């Protein structure tokens, strides 16, 4: 499943995606890290919303852009990934996959598994586990730890 953040085209395995929903009200959590946008109510379930722009150290989203929620299920519960726009499902082959290049910023390279060179654009594969690991050591988001 693909999505956009700033001018980056990213994707995760479609099997990881539980659902995609429009913007929801998110309640900020005092003292939470910047990457944690807050908590939202998804049909009675409290879901942590992770701002992928912040996680990838991208500029903040313009106020006029309402983020989309890509909901993924983890051991500790559902997590919402806030993205600018959802692209769709693309089938890609391993023959067009390359490891992350040195020209990616090091903090971004840690969250990208690699890139698929498509005919019309470059699709960056997000490392979902790393994207959900906020901080170092045992400070992880919703991994049941």
What is the radius of gyration computed over CA atoms, rounded to a whole number of angstroms?
15 Å
In CATH terms, what is the fold-level topology?
A: OB fold (Dihydrolipoamide Acetyltransferase, E2P)
How far apart are the termini? 27 Å
For CATH, the homologous superfamily is named as: CheA-289, Domain 4
The counted number of beta strands is: 11
Derived structural class: mainly beta
Mean pLDDT: 87
Low-confidence stretches: 136-145
Number of helices: 3
Helix content: under 10%
Order of helices and strands: EEEEEHEEEEHEEH
Shape: globular
The CATH class, by name, is Mainly Beta
For the sheet with most strands, the description reads: 6 strands, mixed
Domains counted in the coordinates: how many?
1
| Strands side by side in the biggest sheet | 8-1-2-11-10-9
Strand-helix topology:
Elements: E1 2-5, E2 8-11, E3 17-21, E4 36-42, E5 45-51, H1 52-55, E6 68-74, E7 77-83, E8 85-88, E9 97-98, H2 106-109, E10 112-117, E11 122-126, H3 128-132
Parallel strand pairs: 2-11, 5-7
Antiparallel strand pairs: 1-2, 1-8, 3-6, 4-5, 6-7, 9-10, 10-11
State the main characteristics.
disordered C terminus, OB fold (Dihydrolipoamide Acetyltransferase, E2P), six-stranded mixed beta sheet, mainly beta, 145 residues, five-stranded mixed beta sheet, globular, 40% strand
Q: What would a concise description of this structure say?
A:
This protein has 145 residues and is mostly beta strands. The chain has three helices and eleven strands. Strand 10 and strand 11 (122-126) form a beta hairpin.
């Amino acid at each position: 499943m693909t999505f956009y953040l700033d001018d980056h085209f990213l994707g995760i395995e479609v099997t990881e995606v539980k659902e995609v929903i429009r913007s929801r009200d998110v309640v900020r959590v005092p003292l939470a890290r910047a990457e944690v946008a807050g908590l939202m109510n998804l049909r009675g379930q409290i879901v942590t919303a992770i701002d992928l722009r912040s996680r990838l150290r991208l500029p903040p989203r313009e106020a006029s852009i309402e983020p989309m929620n890509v909901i993924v299920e983890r051991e500790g519960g559902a997590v919402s990934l806030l993205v600018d726009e959802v692209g769709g499902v693309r089938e890609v082959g391993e023959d067009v996959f390359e490891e992350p290049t040195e020209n990616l910023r090091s903090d971004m390279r840690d969250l990208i598994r690699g890139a698929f060179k498509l005919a019309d654009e470059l699709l960056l594969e997000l490392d979902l586990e790393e994207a959900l690991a906020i901080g170092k050591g045992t400070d992880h988001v919703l991994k049941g730890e």
